[in-house]
Each structure stands twice: as structure tokens, then as C-alpha cells.
Amino acid sequence: MKKIVGLLLALTLLLTTFAACGKPSDVSSSSSNASAPSVSEASKPSEPVTITHWYWADNPKYSETMQAMVKDFNETNGKNITVVAQEYPWDGGKYSENLFTAVQGGGGPDTASWKLTATPLFVANNLLANLDSYIANWKDKDLIEQSLYNTMKQAGGSDSIFVMPWNTQVLYVYYRPSMFKDAGVEVPTTYDQFLEACKKLTRDTNGDGKTDVYGFGMRGAKGGQEPWGSFIWARGGNFENFNTPEAIQGMKDFVDLYKKGYVPPTAPTDGFNEIIANFKSGKTAMTIHHIGSSAGMIETFGDDVAAFPFPAGKSQWTSMGDTENVMFEACKNKDAAFEWISYLATGKGQETWCTVTGNVPVSKTVKELPAFQDNRFMKVSIEAAPNAGIYPILDTTTEWISNVWPNTVAGALTGKITPEKAMETLQTSLYGKK
């Protein structure tokens, strides 16, 4: 019970990490362990089949779009499958808690919109259908990057896939081309070049002897663990062990940016609102966020704003926000349910949803469409997507993100503790061991 409560708290916080950072612009019964037929070969049900789907919508436009996709699927699937989509409020992540309560109690839908962070709790209670055999026999399986399937597996804590990819948000680096030109800086293509750019872009532009433009807008408050992770991986570290020399060096790089004055002095307490305000006011030349901020950036700067993926060092990683779909183990018509969630993953539903919401598609075919390739921020998101991932989803993650990470990193930035001690604390607090 303690573990279930901990995971519920973890998923509630993690589900809101990206959501709090801005929104994007504009058939027969089958056991999960049985060998599933290819979707293209699945026999049409002799009787009409109804699939119930739960989802949330961030605004009325998204709700209208979901219902339009349902209508299109129902009219075009040709297999007597009717999807009934029922909307429920997101309510700060309580959507997932309410879904758990419903399904655990023997009710709930056949399929549902999803956040990866909810996966461990549902898998631990055997509530999700295993999609391995369905995906193995799916004609469109190769349209989705293997790295994304790997993230689905990571979320479930096994080598099996319980979550069907749908759309993502990927962190990248926003920058001001005019500032780069004035400082004689090229767009970084390596991690070392990125660190050097932070230095060169930090300038006194009015000659009063004080820095008025900082190279990088650092997020040291809650939520800052997302961009921070890119520094750790760039040095060759990862999230399995924060005490390695490589991970510690990534922390030292992060701390050095603050100590050397290449980020605003308020960085230890700067959250999403502060880093965006600093960038838009011209106080910083670079900052990290996702495509959800692009409309506001264009409104402020017009053509004088662009983006690039966080560059690779020894390794490369960026943080991924997600909205996916799942099929529940209790679903009595799994073949029909998979037809629906695959329509959302690589069918017309994929193109429609990502076009309207501005989220990053998971289908390679949709990614290549002009509407996505001609958007400079979408193109960078797509470029960065293969290196995007998530933090471990543990029953300690909520406290780690909410309090341990921001307090520990603030201590390291201000010199109260060493980078080594900070990493030891982060390791112990997340994993319970050094």
C-alpha cells in the first residue's frame, strides 16, 4: 500500500512537469499473452464492436479535434468498430488517479490517453495489456523510432511495452541569432562549443562595466532537473548513478556557469516563468524549453529567434514530455482496441492531432510532411527526439523533484556544498543508496 501511494504521488507530480511549462501552439477477445495477429490481417468482427476511450483535453479546440478523429475512425476503419470517446478533466493529474480507481474497481474504459509516469502503478497491478505481440506483428511498427519504444519499456520497468506512442514534447535550446552574430558565435554543434558560447555571449553591451546579457538562462528551481540532465549525459553520465566521475563533471559544468557569471544571479531560484521572461527581455541569449513556447517567442522576436538540439558530448540526452495511449487488460476486444490506438499512432489520427496541437509526431511518415518540416521549431524537436528520454519513475521521485533536486542544486550553485556532495545526496535520495 505504501508503494502504491508513493507511485500515485510520483505520477501526479511528474505528469505536471511539462504541462506547467506552457502548452503547444497551435475482434475478438484476446489475452495480452496470446500471439496477436497482424492488424492488417485481423479478421473483421462478425458483430459490431464498441471501444470506450477516455481522454482529457487542454482546451475546447483539442476536445473538438478528438471527437472529429473518432468520427473519422468510425467511418473509415471498415471493421465494424465504433469508438466512443469520453472526456474527463486533467485536474492537475488527478485524471490518472481517477482512472486507476475506476479500472482497479473493475470499470473504466477499454483504452485511454496516457502519461508515461502513470505506467508503473498500473503495470504493478496488472491493469495494462501487454502490447509486445501486437507491435511485433504491426505493419507500421518501424514508423516509430526504437528509442521511443525503449522509453516505453523503461516506463513499465521491464522489456515489455504497455504504452502505445502518440505524441511528445522535446526540450531544445532557444537562441537569439542577432546576439550570436554580435558576439561572433556560431551555433554550437558540440557540448564544449555550447559551454564556450555561454561564456562568449555573456557581455556588457552598454559599457557600464556590468553584465547586461547572460549567455544562458539557467533554471535552478523545481523543474530544472529536466535541462540539467543534458549536462550530466553530455559528460558521459546517466541517471543510474550520479556518483560517477562523468556525472559529477556534468554537475561541475552546471555549477561553473553560475560561479563564472554566465547565467543570471537569480538562477538558483529561477523557474519556468523567470527563464522565459529573461529570454524575452533580452537578458539571456539562450535558454531551454520546448515547442510549447514557440508561439510566444515568435510573437516577441519574429525571425530573431531560433533553436538547436542540446549538443552531444560523450553522450546526448534531452527531456521528453509525452501524451500516449494504453489498452487495458480487461478490454474484451483487444484487436479492435489496437486498431484504434494504432490509428492514433501512425494513422490519420496522428497527423490530425499533431497538426492541431503542435506536439511532435511519433510517426516517421508524419514527421516528413511539409507542415512539420517547414516549422523551424518542430524540425529541431524532431531532430532532438531520438535522444529524448525520461527520469526513473520511482516512489521516491516526487520528493526528489519537488524538494531534493532544487534544494541540493541551489546549495551547490551557491557554494554551500560541493558538486560531489550534491551528487551523493541526489543519488541517495532517489535510490536510497550511495
Structural write-up:
This is Carbohydrate ABC transporter substrate-binding protein, CUT1 family. The chain has 19 helices and ten strands. It has 434 residues and is an alpha/beta fold. It has two domains: 238 residues, 3-Layer(aba) Sandwich (D-Maltodextrin-Binding Protein, domain 2), CATH 3.40.190; 154 residues, 3-Layer(aba) Sandwich (D-Maltodextrin-Binding Protein, domain 2), CATH 3.40.190.10. Helix 1 crosses helix 18, helix 2 packs antiparallel against helix 14 and helix 9 crosses helix 10. The N terminus is likely disordered.
Task: For this entry, give a set of tags.
434 residues; alpha/beta; D-Maltodextrin-Binding Protein, domain 2; 2 domains; 3-stranded antiparallel sheet; 19 helices; 12% strand; globular
Write a compact overview of the structure shown.
This protein has helices at residues 2-19, 60-76, 94-104, 119-124, 132-136, 146-156, 177-183, 191-200, 225-234, 245-259, 272-280, 294-301, 334-346, 348-357, 364-367, 370-373, 376-384, 397-413, 419-431; strands spanning 49-55, 81-87, 111-114, 164-170, 172-175, 286-289, 306-308, 318-327, 360-361, 388-389.
